[in-house]
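Example complex used in Figure S2.
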Amino acid sequence: MTQKIYLRSFGCQMNDYDSSRILDLMREEGYEAVEAPDDADLAVVVTCSIREKAQEKTFSDLGRLREMKKAKPDMLIAVGGCVASQEGRKILSRAPWVDVVFGPQTLHRLPALIAERRKTGRAQVDISFPEIEKFDHLPAPCAHGATAFVSVMEGCSKYCSYCVVPYTRGEEISRPLVDVLVECAHLAEQGVKELTLLGQNVNAYRGRGPNGTTVDFALLLEFVSDIPGIERIRYTTSHPKEFSDRLIEAYGYLPKLANHVHLPVQSGSDRILAAMKRGYTHDWYLDRVARLRAVRPDISIATDFIVGFPGETEEDFAETMRLIDEVGFDASFSFVYSKRAGTPAASLPDDTPQSVKLARLQHLQSVIEANATRLSEAMLGRTERCLVFGEARKGGGMLAARTDNNRVVNFAGDASLIGRMADIRITDVFPHTLGGELVCAGGE
Ligand code: SAH
Ligand code: SF4
Ligand code: F3S
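Predicted assembly (444 residues):
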């Protein structure tokens, strides 16, 4: 009889990617994915620990699953992702009803861990880091629609003073070039037109190439760009320190590279950047942006900010606001600093009241939001080449497409356009989307 798996994923796109690979893997084991945990035989929670709130969500979710398990004692509960990686066996003391704990690098062992749990009746924990082995043991990915993610490197060796990622995901490690290209080509054959290459610091990619050479991120992009059927390439998340001249030049000769980049800066104050151990300054970041804009004048730039890092003064924050002005960011993922146990910044004195931090965050977000609206308004009347990715959320026979600069545009069109490129004229600007009309449908 087919077993049912329920999966919930928190955190970043690396977790989303891992989650879809877990589902691919478990499908091969005879599981069928279900939308609600009630009738699941196996519930998997893929967790995030980047901020305290994210971590707490894990435990409230596990609490809910415990109630369900009371009604259905055969149900197994597995916990993966970054909280699992960080806490390991300790998860079992806080949530003894958990059956399996696995890490980001051991997800391919999930079937074996479940079998062992069933055989022995004992909870199983495996959060080791057997390097890149997991990719060799996962089935080829299935495409779902015209867009897909491909993980090209994992982990982080930067050790910013506030961040858990190097501890939960391990050091940077890149997949060999051939493996990445085979996966991309396989997805393109299934109709994928837009690829997003993934990694914690994706532009730190240094994979094994032909004849023992090392391939950097710019060269990887060249290869991916040559794959027939791929129309557009995105990547996330890139690190400013790894934003090389070669990568910037690639924007000049690779038209498939999207006109949008996510380049987290975290702060505009040199003092805070140093305390964060980011390895660059305000001016250095500005120089990267200037060079990029020399090649792609209209590229849209999104970023991440941490507001209220320990010791951040009004002057430091003003430096951040100055940077926002200078760059004209198009979007940001910005949060108040969250103290993470085990990171160096956790021991820094932090006397700024939370209310002050929140007010700074709100101010920052409203300025970036206003900027994004201004940039959207500048698109009015322009015809944009978009990838039609599905039906519009609000329904009504409308379709949704993504512009090169990463905005969603809703327009009236026939469902046969889904999965294809189309030229769409922008006619309306709404708070988080655009409205448009179809000018011309692209090829198959
Ligand atoms: N490697 C990427 C970011 C990955 S983590 C980079 O360094 O640019 C995603 C985002 O989470 C970070 O950009 C940062 O803004 C945020 N973040 C990480 N640790 C945090 C913490 N302790 N408190 C608040 N935000 C944090
Ligand atoms: Fe965290 Fe810094 Fe690594 Fe980004 S670069 S994942 S912020 S340690
Ligand atoms: Fe969270 Fe881990 Fe990603 S901590 S943001 S799921 S790398």
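The first helix runs from residue 13 to 28. The chain has a mean pLDDT of 95.
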